[in-house]
Hints:
Helix content: 40-55%
Distance between the termini: 141 Å
Amino acid sequence: MQDKRELKKQPIDKQIIKHFDGMNTQLLKEYNEGIFFIDCVGNVIFSNKAALRLIGNDYKEKSQQLTEFIHEAKQEEVRIYFQRALKGEKVQFGTTIYHKTNNEMHLCITLLPSIVDDQVLGVYAVCRDYSKEQEQFAQLSKLETHLKMEQKLANIGSWCYDVMEDESYWSHQLYKIYGVKNDQRFVPSFKEGARFIHPRDRKRLEDAVGHSLATGESYKIEYTIIRPNGEKRMVFEQADAVVDEKRKVVQLLGVVHDITESKVITNELKQKEHQFQTIYNNLDAGIWSVDVTRNKVILCSDAVLNIYGETSAKFLKNRHLWEAFVYPEDRPTTTKEYIKLMQGKSIRPHYRIQTKKGEIKWVRDHCIPTCDEHGNLIRIDGIIEDITEEKRYVDKIEYLATHDYLTNLPNRIKFEREVKKSISKMKENDGSLAVFHFGLDRFKHINDTLGHDIGDQLLMNIAKRLKERLEPTAILARVGEDEFAVCATSLEQIGECKKIAAILFKEIEKEIMIDDFSLCVTASMGISIYPHDGEDAKTLYKNANIAMHRAKELGRSDWQLYSPLMDSAAYKSYHLEKGLRNALLQDEFFIEYQPKVHAQSGEIDSLEALIRWNHPEWGRVSPGDFIPLAEETNLIIDLGDWVLEHVCKQLQRWKKQGRKVVPVSVNVPSKRLLKRDFVEYVEKTLAKYEIQPSFIEFEITESSIIQHEEHVKKVMEELKKIGVTFALDDFGTGFSSLSHLKDLEFNVLKIDKTFIQNIGDKGKHQAITKSLLYLAHALDMKVIAEGVETTEQLDFLLQHDCPFIQGFIFSKPVGKEKIEEYLRVRFL
């Protein structure tokens, strides 16, 4: 009986150990977080299924290295971390890996050195996978259960030594252990058996046997034997002494167990148990399990200390301790989720906790219920993670996605979300709200002339002013480069909209000093009101935008309430822009000509070519409608080339018909004037239709010159050399500068019709017109007055020596057939 009790303490059976190791390895393979085992040179020796899914690969090669899956920019950094782990240090870092779908995946990787007998055998790389907590916990529970399996006895060789007769008996199994044949050539004895003992262990065994013979005590010893074929084996031997009535030893009974494989497996088992404990207790997630029937925590990993600031021992003693850490505002949420859990539903609540030190953290708790065959809840397993940094990162990304980087105001996305929330409240209270959408007038000019830094500071100043002046309940947002939006709630009457608009205009129009620049800006504003102008955020925003553009059309620096009639204008504008792209191909454009005549005689001096559009649906479209659209879409360049081409073609036709032709002026878009190939294009077109350059005059507005004066000057000089003339159009209405007249040497100065139309008032317009006439004569420039419609205007111009006029008093713009009649008679 004594022998059997002692045998239970022997090393475990070889096959059982292998089976257990297989189960252990399989468990790691099935673990739901990615785990790689990497040898000291960086080769991946082991990877579980989760790791393969993580990288989207099914490789089997042992030589493949983990860094092959790491983003190129991160590989050197990962190598440095790996070297630190090889020195015995636990390393945790974030990096990026490649997936076979060519996507990038961001991971948190923990490198855990595997240390046995003070030697690093390799490194475990644990990759966090938040979506696999359930399988992860299940596998970890299995691993822990299997690690507690009892060892089973292996086959044992027995022997008996008769002290009195000096004879020994070996069992058949013992012969096999020693590797000798059970025949007459080998007589078992202590002396014969001792020659198989490794020299370094022989003295220890002799001492143990001698001590047992002398004292009658049993002994246990491990030693190495060398078989006749030279093979070394590790054995465990235990012997008991049998004594007579005089307490003298008469026999020794012993057993010998070959523990070679068991010893190796046991060492590996210890190593893997150590590795498991390292992983289990170094995971950032806290792992726990509750026996519901006993109302007791049966498992709680050390990671909870890092999360809660409280030891796992405290949680093991008190199942409901976690509830005390839940942030008060989040307790109703966790209570609702806990009810679902008790009903047998898996839950993944996110909530805040307040740690033992008073820190506020965000956690994600994945709770997995287990029910018996009757549906009764018997166990709850869970994994809790600290997601505070993740939450901060997500919140930061959310903020960046919904706020303007310059002013820190909400952007359009955030604005529409907030308006949507406000509308929900208005529906409950039967209230109303207004959306104000306004854009700064001529902001682009400030950017172009003073630079974007000044423009940015201007926007920040305006945003700050508005935020300080508006009510706290109002929503202010930057919704475009130079556009803002405001949502004001609980409006009782429309008059309040006017008050808010007045406040906004007042703040916007205040002088702003930036780097010694005194800036004054105005705004155009559109207003839509809920529920009259729309019942959702997008509609209200769209309609306020339409009203804002209407305010710009009507002269800027004003506001407009939305009207359904505005939609038709917007609809038409949209379809005009769409149709404009096909109009050239469909030959929908044509040219009309307006004569420029001698004021005294009425003789035709020259013509101005004006492009017109005959829309297939809306008929004749005003240039005021399609020219701005063409400028916005860059189609103005193609239109300008089309006009020059058709003017040259028409001049060629008239020449072939024998008609006496006169010079024709063509408006040059500023964008076309700045193209490098403009001079070359003009020369080729004139040569193509055999037109003398003196028959072409280009009309340029002052806005074409600003910011690009040197380039314009160079273009004018090259074309004037071949005979082309230039007229300065709309002089006095824009950024008038005498330097343009002096430096660029225009041939013609055109006085804008805005001065001519008000010339009868005998005020400033008369004075300006007389000054322009005097200036043109002094500079020896040909001068033409535009928009002359009455005899009063004509008389004034004749009185003050204006030689050429253009206007309805002689002729409006007409088609080529009518112009041919004019050219035939020469006088109007």
